[in-house]
């Protein structure tokens, strides 16, 4: 009987094995995860879970009974040390497991600060796993002093949670502005104002020189401009890197992650990849998407293709971020935009529409689900939107869908 092994028990891995069973695969399925817990949602870790508004059980993607009922073997808290594509085996410690097909859903790793500048001191945290957040949670208390390194979405979400818990927050961003890598200046301006209104001290164009400590624990930080801060803990949000170590050691081709074709195949026979770790063709170029929707959709297509569907994965990128009482929803990819159109609503309701020439590329919508949904449907269909209509707050957006 055929055996499918999936390495990586996160959103993509859990989605992939569930889809295999939904498609009627009756062979053996093994899901291997390095973390000693059931597959869980990551986005709430830095938001509702850290705030204490979500219990552990609600993080789980599926109850343990789901895997038993669907005859899916879980190997949790176990790390694969090697893959041998020639003989089609994976190794866990001293155990060798044979596979007929293998899927890599290994996810990504958070970038950490070098030990040479204090990155290994107690009290320096990253936000990626349940263990990361559990380790940080006791420090997030009223009156504590936090330094957030990095003004991307992870850093800003961490800053929002800390501020809501009464922590004194300083956030440093080495680039000229927060969100510079992922958003227009309009979106940066919106979130800078939001955070400052909640007491966060945002410092842009300022790097971190080093973290200082006593007895192995964080006590302060020195910034690139010479400023010295007293801090109780540090949260590092400076991006992630795809987890490609196993693939690289096995000789698989890499290109901004594990390189796959449009159907999720890697360069090795009977090995597939999906989620944060995988790069794939998209509109004439190669991309890698770090998002829950991509992890689910790509993994489900890969599951179908492992069973012979021969189906290309067509990504429809979308993302979200929750900060304070603002829900940011993003549709599309803004790469290559040359101008932005602002649509102002009531209160905090605003959306920014990215264009390249006459073509709509992406939408950032803050507390504006209607603008987001219209923009997403247009982008997914390859359509555009009249900038004059978008810019008019009194104009109804729905007729754009019929154009």
UniProtKB/TrEMBL annotation:
<dbReference type="Pfam" id="PF07992">
    <property type="entry name" value="Pyr_redox_2"/>
</dbReference>
<feature type="domain" description="Reductase C-terminal">
    <location>
        <begin position="318"/>
        <end position="401"/>
    </location>
</feature>
<dbReference type="InterPro" id="IPR016156">
    <property type="entry name" value="FAD/NAD-linked_Rdtase_dimer_sf"/>
</dbReference>
<feature type="domain" description="FAD/NAD(P)-binding">
    <location>
        <begin position="3"/>
        <end position="299"/>
    </location>
</feature>
<dbReference type="Pfam" id="PF14759">
    <property type="entry name" value="Reductase_C"/>
</dbReference>
<dbReference type="GO" id="GO:0005737">
    <property type="term" value="C:cytoplasm"/>
</dbReference>
<dbReference type="InterPro" id="IPR036188">
    <property type="entry name" value="FAD/NAD-bd_sf"/>
</dbReference>
<dbReference type="GO" id="GO:0016651">
    <property type="term" value="F:oxidoreductase activity, acting on NAD(P)H"/>
</dbReference>
<dbReference type="InterPro" id="IPR028202">
    <property type="entry name" value="Reductase_C"/>
</dbReference>
<dbReference type="InterPro" id="IPR050446">
    <property type="entry name" value="FAD-oxidoreductase/Apoptosis"/>
</dbReference>
<keyword id="KW-0274">FAD</keyword>
<protein>
    <submittedName>
        <fullName>Pyridine nucleotide-disulfide oxidoreductase</fullName>
    </submittedName>
</protein>
<keyword id="KW-0285">Flavoprotein</keyword>
<keyword id="KW-0560">Oxidoreductase</keyword>
<dbReference type="InterPro" id="IPR023753">
    <property type="entry name" value="FAD/NAD-binding_dom"/>
</dbReference>
